[in-house]
Amino acid sequence: MNGNSREVILQSIREHLAASVAHEHHSPIHFTPRTVAVSANGSATSASNIELFKKGLEAVMGRCLVVKTELEIVHALTRIITELKHTPLNPRRVAVSDAEGLERLVRLIAVELEVTTMPSTADLFNIDIGITTAQGAIAETGTLILDSSRERNRLISLVPPVHIAIVSASEIYSTLGEALSVLHNDKQSVSSVLTFVTGPSRTADIELTLTIGVHGPQELYVIILDDEQ
Q: Which residue segments constitute the domains of the chain, with CATH numbers given?
């Protein structure tokens, strides 16, 4: 690094630090505690978890749709992909994980697409949308939990520029602690690789500039199947 580049970086840091000092004189931010409805057995209700998850996901620039039937899942997928058709991405190729019944639903989408189930790693880089299910979610942070022992969803969720995930409302937990407790007590063994996804991929360089979708999906859509009606 030459002297001029070093000085530019240091000057940028000084400017951001100066801006931070200015903010310290403002009134502090007060966080309002979340009120969570609790069922008779002490766990948060499905309705409250859906609402909290949706707010958490949207806070990190993800998008959420709530449906009640498999047919509504198909309609939600059609809506999402139709909207994306009017963007520069204009998706044509979709990759689907090996989750049971997922390919059947995707092939009912009323949009012309090339659907591939479990493409090779090399082919994934030519895919526009990856569609998976999720094995759980955390309401307070809008986080998805992907368990590779139950579905081969890791690369399909991470490589294409758009990730669409489907999760059951009954598998949305209030907190990370509750989610991990349930997963460890589940009869099925938990994978040694759990992927936690909170919003689209993002990073910030040394100039503190937030950039979306550099090392993963630029867009994240979550479809919640409200199966506790």
A: 44-225 (3.40.50.10420)
Residue 100: exposed, middle, or buried by beta-carbon count in 10 A (0-12, 13-18, 19+)? exposed
Q: In which residue are the tokens 């995707």 written? A: 106
Whether residue 84 contacts residue 162, with contact meaning beta carbons closer than 8 Å, is answered with yes
Q: Let me know the angle formed at the C-alpha of 122 by 118 and 125, rounded to the nearest 5 degrees.
A: 90
What would the pLDDT profile of 101-139 be if each residue is shown by its tens digit?
999 999 999 999 999 999 999 999 999 999 999 999 999
Q: Has residue 40 got a pLDDT over 70?
A: no
Query: What residue ranges in the chain does DSSP mark as E strands?
Result: 63-67, 93-96, 114-117, 129-133, 136-138, 143-147, 162-168, 172-173, 194-197, 202-204, 210-212, 219-225
What is the pTM for the complete model shown? Answer: 0.76
Closest CA to 94 of 153, 156, 151: 156
Could you tell me which residues come within 8 angstroms of residue 172 by beta carbon, excluding any fewer than 6 positions away? 46, 49, 50, 53, 136, 137, 138, 139, 224
